[in-house]
Amino acid sequence: MTTTLKKEKENLVSINMTIPAKEASSAYDLAASRISQHININGFRKGKAPKSVVERHVGVDRIQQEALEMLLPRYITKAINDNKLDTITQPAVTNYNFEPGKDVEVTFEVETRPEVTIGTYKNLDLKAEIMPEDKSAFDNALNGFLTQHSSLELVLDRPSNNTDIVVFDFDGTCNGEKIQGGSAKGYALDLGHSNFIPGFAEQLVGHNIKDEFEIAVTFPSDYHDEKLKGQEAKFSIKMNEIKQRVLPELTDEFVKSSSRFSTVDELKADIQNYLDNQRESMKRTSAENAIFKSLIDSTSVDIPQSMINREVNALRGDYQQRLSAQGVDWNKFIQSQGGESNFNANLVNDAKARIKNSLIIDKISKEENISVQQSDFSGKLSQLSAAYGASPEQIVKQFGNNPNFLNSLSQQIINEKVRNFLIDNNKFEYVEVEPKKEEVSA
């Protein structure tokens, strides 16, 4: 076999290769024989028709295509390996010339991985920003556990406060008209955790059972109902019940009856362990962000437009799938992102960042000889087994023959190994920073 390589635009490579006539002829005869076994030809049993008859029945082109399907995978792989090409797309045949008794000429195109010039990625001293430790996190977690096992008791001797659950009737109007879906009877609302219109729950505080009163609220400017956006509304309220949450006493007996722990100390130790792990995870994420920011800033690569286009399409598809599953209207979502052009610009930026990240990981894995071992697959399958509630054997049976699944699994393993390598080979100073105001309000 001979090959000729030609570089097209950006990272596109065109390869012309010659398949020897002898092998092409053998593949052609075998293809004709295989086809004859699956078609009915008058006067012949399946698989017994001569080649000339099969040619007249299905056409030479079909036999040639079948022969090429047998030949091309092996020859294309060899051509790629002989030319030491690092490909990122499946080869696409653009032309072929298949004549009986002659060498077969085939031309195919494939995209190669762009050249990456990476900066220093080991023995760096980096600062990683983390949020200050929440001193109330332990008490909040413990209180959350008690709240899960709390009971509700009727309140008869006082007005409602902002920690109560109230049961009430309401009827809303806007501009003198009843609000569709704006009325209910016996509705229960937790005044401390309300998702009602801003200002609604607050005005139910300080009222007694059987009180009847009116409140006024203003719908948000981004409310989903166009008729109500920014409009003032009035609600007639009748207070039916007030309930207060009563927390259980924290004792060994209570803990044993309501959890997998036997004592209060065991429960507290588990909560603290969870919070410690959560903080370590936060530090790990911050360290990864710091090292990759440094790498992205110091790495040089010209990303081909074709790669960007594919990644943008993939990102858009992910968005559409997730939003569809959540019942979100695509057009309204685009409007919320500042319009189609603004959304597309953001997608392009995200695509470039993801591609560069991926190219950096690939480069480091090659530089450091980081590869996937059988034990890595076993470990990843065990994780999937736990996540999906299926045995590793069932996972393999369902997905094992899917090349995309195996490639994705391999890439996940390489990503994790490279990230571990970068964490282990750099030093990080963790700097506490206060959250930005917009983050707090969100």
Kindly describe this structure.
By secondary structure, this protein is an alpha+beta fold. Among the domains are: 2-112, Alpha-Beta Plaits (2-Layer Sandwich), CATH 3.30.70.1050; 151-246, Chitinase A, domain 3 (Roll), CATH 3.10.50.40. The protein is built from 13 helices and 13 strands. Strands 7, 8, 9, 10 and 11 form a five-stranded antiparallel beta sheet that branches.
Topology of this protein?
Elements lengths: L1 E6 L4 E8 L1 H16 L14 H8 L1 H23 L9 E6 L6 E8 L4 E2 L7 E6 L6 H12 L2 E4 L10 E10 L2 E14 L21 E7 L13 E15 L5 H7 L5 H35 L1 E2 L3 H21 L4 H7 L3 H28 L6 H15 L3 H8 L3 H22 L2 E6 L4 H5 L1
Parallel strand pairs: 6-13
Antiparallel strand pairs: 1-2, 2-4, 3-4, 5-12, 7-11, 8-9, 8-11, 10-11
Helix pairs in contact: 1-3, 4-6, 7-9, 9-12, 10-11
Low-confidence stretches: 438-442
Radius of gyration: 33 Å
Mean pLDDT over the full residue set: 90
Strand content: 15-25%
The termini sit apart by: 63 Å
**Number of H- or I-type helical stretches:** 13
Q: Please identify the top-level CATH class of the domain at 2-112.
A: Alpha Beta
**What is the share of helical residues?**
40-55%
What overall form do the CA principal axes indicate?
elongated
Quick description:
The chain is built from 13 helices and 13 strands. It has 442 residues and is of the alpha+beta class. Among the domains are: 2-112, Trigger factor ribosome-binding domain (Alpha-Beta Plaits), CATH 3.30.70.1050; 151-246, Chitinase A, domain 3 (Roll).
